[in-house]
Amino acid sequence: MYGAVPLGEWALRVGLELPCLVILSFFIIADAGMAQQKSTPSQQKSAPAQQHSAPVQQPTPPAQQPSAQDEQLSQLAKLDWKIGPTQGDIAGIAAIVVPKGLVFLSSAGTRRFLELNGNLGVDSHFTFAPSDLDWFSVFSFDPSGYVPDDEKIDPDALLDILKKGNVAGNEERKKRGLETLVLEDWYVTPHYDVQTKRLEWGTKLRQLSGEVTVNYSIRLLGRTGVMSAVLVSNPTSLDKDIRSFKTALAGFNFNSGQKYLEYRTGDKVAEYGLAALIVGGAAAAAAKSGAFKFLGKFIGVGVFGGLAAAWAAIRSFASRKRA
């Protein structure tokens, strides 16, 4: 499992106006050898020989280079974190209240955040998280149009599709030198809330090391498309983090004119329903036709699957630094 110690204080200091955590240790080796002069018997009978010693030079300690993890923490600290209380704009389509204790990253910041976590950098994504980074979420909007919500969901069939897409996604990750992740099962079975217009599910993936990653996804239906919110959390605290995440989502709202219930006849309607949102909007047409070509954008697993792995390493390393 991941490191159990949260980043709490570290995130507030390091990621959000933190002092440097790099500890340098210097070792000085002194050469105490003295030059000795040899004297002949005649010299010994006359005046005592004068001994001359060369000044002892203290070697300059080599400059210690920051480790890769130190550099990673430094780069995270430089991101343009918006610290609550404030409000985060999401793609000009929606906004979320960022209360005290939570933080927000714009599209540019999120792209770099994903790269620092060992994932493919993508644009038009936004990060929302508590300041201790015990969990974080990534938002993105797909202007696919109004999605009818009257479709029946078949979890078993969808899981089979996702597993096949996971194989193709891992091939792409290998090409880019990223760690592969195997999709094992649902962590949370897909379900749709008619009242909130939210589609939710969770997938469980396993790294080669045996560690488990959980991606918990929510799709919020709007008038002109779908907002994606992917939660990355430690499996041991996922239930608690989901509750925290959902509580924070109370501050999410589509902008005026973008709400699902504001649909009007003549608006663009998506070519797919709820099931295709789970396998990926980009593959929706294939999902609807049954072609299933398993494109790279097939699932959030392909894009965000490695986040929890690298994020856990950052948390663990930062915790050791604090200790």
Descriptive overview:
This protein has 323 residues and is α+β, with helices and mostly antiparallel strands. It has one domain (68-322). 31% of the residues lie in helices and 23% in strands. A hairpin with a 5-residue loop joins strand 5 and strand 6. The protein is globular. Mean pLDDT is 73; it is low at 1-47 and 281-323.
In terms of topology, how is this protein built?
Layout: H1 8-15, H2 41-45, H3 68-77, E1 82-83, E2 86-90, E3 94-98, E4 102-105, H4 107-116, E5 125-130, E6 136-142, H5 155-175, E7 181-193, E8 198-207, E9 212-221, E10 226-233, H6 238-249, E11 252-254, H7 274-279, H8 284-289, H9 300-304, H10 307-322
Antiparallel strand pairs: 1-4, 2-3, 3-11, 4-5, 5-6, 6-10, 7-8, 8-9, 9-10
Give the key terms.
alpha+beta, 323 residues, disordered N terminus, 10 helices
Overview in brief:
The chain has 323 residues and is of the alpha+beta class.
